[in-house]
């Protein structure tokens, strides 16, 4: 069971888009894409500034569709969305103290997708630090502390989160020392998410019930994107619009999103509002070196959903 239900209309529309995508991009294998799509009918219960209590919010029925939505996939920087919610939970519970430097790191982690900022956030969340290898006893303690974010998400009792793993930092060159030990010899302890898990967490943020209504609004402010930034600036590798879901949206659309990319995956998750359309949440994960080099793949999918 997921937090949303399916219907024939949405299923047919989404399946047609997937079929069109495979036809347009024949190198994309059926097992190299995962997708979750949530459509908000009237009355729209998200982006209301936290007008509904959590009890009221979770009682509203939601319609959606998923393809391979329960498949565990390396999330790249999509995991930063989970660290964003966790750090606000820690702040709300007075487990940590707010500071200008912490706020700078939170901002840079989401707005710029900074891996260095994320490293600090993971250290603050877990009370661990990177460094040289550790002996067996100290390393067991270190691992237990690092898994605190996993324990937090399991405590929510959401079925969509049962199989996820969110205990690793994000890297440019890769982990060293105790971090390399922790991720496993064959990287079997790396971060793993599903598009359904991302959808549920994002749904809670835009619903104003992630941690608190004020915390959710702070998260929304960081996730807001300018859809007019459709081209990369000089010396800019990515801007989380070009080559992602926002690229094919009209300039009058409102977009809240977090993208993730490596040499092997290219993902995006977004809440989208387009005038005269129903608001929707769209999470797309793609894998395969050939596919992630194609900057038209995710925008193609996005355009199809935007034009429904």
**Strands of the largest sheet, in order across it?**
2-1-6-5-4-3
Q: What oligomeric arrangement do these chains adopt?
A: single chain
Number of discrete domains = 2
Intertermini distance: 26 Å
Number of strands: 6
Structural class: alpha+beta
Helix share, percent: 25-40%
Number of helices: 12
Major sheet summary line: 6 strands, antiparallel
Detailed description of the structure:
- By secondary structure, this protein is an alpha+beta fold.
- It contains twelve helices and six strands.
- The chain has helices spanning 8-24, 54-59, 79-92, 100-111, 115-126, 136-146, 148-155, 178-183, 195-206, 213-223, 289-292, 297-306, and strands at 33-39, 63-67, 224-225, 254-261, 265-273, 280-287.
- The chain has a six-stranded antiparallel beta sheet with strand order 2-1-6-5-4-3, with helices on both faces.
- Helix 1 (8-24) packs antiparallel against helix 12 (297-306).
- The chain is globular.
- The model has no long low-confidence stretch (mean pLDDT 97).
């Amino acid at each position: 069971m997921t937090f949303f239900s399916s219907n024939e209309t949405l299923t047919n529309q989404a399946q047609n888009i997937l079929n069109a995508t495979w036809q347009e991009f024949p190198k994309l294998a059926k097992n190299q894409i995962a997708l979750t799509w949530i459509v908000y009918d009237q009355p729209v219960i998200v982006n209301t500034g936290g007008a509904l209590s959590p009890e009221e919010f979770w009682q509203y029925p939601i319609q959606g569709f998923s393809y391979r939505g329960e498949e565990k996939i390396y999330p790249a920087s999509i995991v930063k969305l989970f660290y964003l919610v966790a750090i606000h939970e820690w702040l709300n519970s007075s487990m940590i103290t707010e500071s200008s430097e912490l706020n700078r790191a939170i901002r840079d982690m989401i707005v710029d997708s900074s891996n260095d900022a994320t490293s600090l956030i993971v250290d603050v969340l877990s009370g661990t630090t990177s460094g040289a290898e550790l002996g067996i006893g100290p390393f067991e303690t270190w691992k237990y502390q690092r898994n605190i974010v996993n324990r937090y998400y399991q405590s929510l009792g959401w079925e969509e989160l049962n199989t996820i793993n969110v205990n690793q930092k994000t890297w440019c060159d890769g982990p060293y020392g105790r971090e390399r030990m922790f991720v496993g010899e064959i990287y079997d302890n790396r971060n793993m998410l599903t598009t359904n898990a991302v959808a549920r967490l994002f749904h809670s943020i835009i619903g104003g019930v992630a941690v608190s209504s004020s915390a959710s609004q702070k998260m929304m402010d960081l996730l807001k994107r300018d859809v007019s930034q459709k081209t990369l600036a000089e010396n800019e590798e990515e801007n989380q619009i070009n080559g992602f879901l926002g690229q094919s949206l009209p300039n009058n659309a409102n977009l809240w999103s977090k993208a993730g990319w490596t040499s092997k995956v290219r993902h995006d998750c977004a809440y989208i509002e387009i005038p005269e359309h129903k608001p929707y949440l769209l999470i797309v994960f793609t894998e395969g070196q050939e596919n992630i080099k194609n900057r038209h793949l995710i925008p193609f999918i996005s355009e199809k959903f935007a034009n429904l």
